Amino acid sequence: MDKTLLVVDRIEEGSRLIDSLSHGRLEVSAAFWLYSTDDENWSLHIVSPTIDQIGLRDSYVAIIHAIRALPDAQIEADDVTLLRTNDPLSVAMLEYLRRHPSASLTRVWGTFIGDIFIDQAYIYPKGLNS
């Protein structure tokens, strides 16, 4: 199966989760689905400055509560990777969003963002949960 098909049905669910987080305790600076060639798996990466304020554990608790609040959620906490804003991948994605603002989901593949090679990613527009 084409690895891009694995995430298509989850894009909307990721958007719903990000929106749900805007009503909770976790500010979202950037969010994107990233394909890992090592794991052959997609993961929803969420960049948040809140992690430094409340800690990683409580940030994941906020994710779990937000997922539970979604009707018929197929996404699980294991599908989510939280990143601090100073993580190299976060810095690269935040810079990408600054340089390439978009009002819609952006797909990138086979390219470098900053110094990081991206096999495939779907990047939500900045301010999705504002």
Structural features, described:
- There is one protein chain.
- The chain is of the alpha+beta class and about 130 residues long.
- It has one domain: GMP Synthetase, Chain A, domain 3, CATH 3.30.300.
- It contains 4 helices and 5 strands; from the N terminus they run αββααβαββ.
- It has helices at about 5-20, 50-55, 55-70, 90-100; strands at about 30-35, 40-45, 80-85, 105-115, 115-125.
- The chain has a 5-stranded mixed beta sheet, sandwiched between helices.
- A hairpin with a 4-residue loop joins strand 1 (about 30-35) and strand 2.
- The radius of gyration is 14 Å and the shape is globular.
- About 30% of the residues are buried.
Number of strands: 5
Runs with pLDDT <50, length 5+? Answer: none
CATH domain fold name? GMP Synthetase, Chain A, domain 3
Strand content: 25-35%
CATH class: Alpha Beta
Q: Which strands sit side by side, in order, in the main sheet? A: 3-2-1-5-4
Helix content: 25-40%
Give the termini separation. Answer: 35 Å
Main beta sheet: 5 strands, mixed
Instruction: List the helices and strands in order.
Output: HEEHHEHEE
The radius of gyration computed from the alpha-carbon positions, rounded to a whole number of angstroms, is 14 Å
Average residue pLDDT: 90
CATH architecture: 2-Layer Sandwich
Which geometry do the CA atoms define? globular
As for the number of domains, it is 1
* Tally of helical runs: 4
Report the structural category.
Answer: alpha+beta
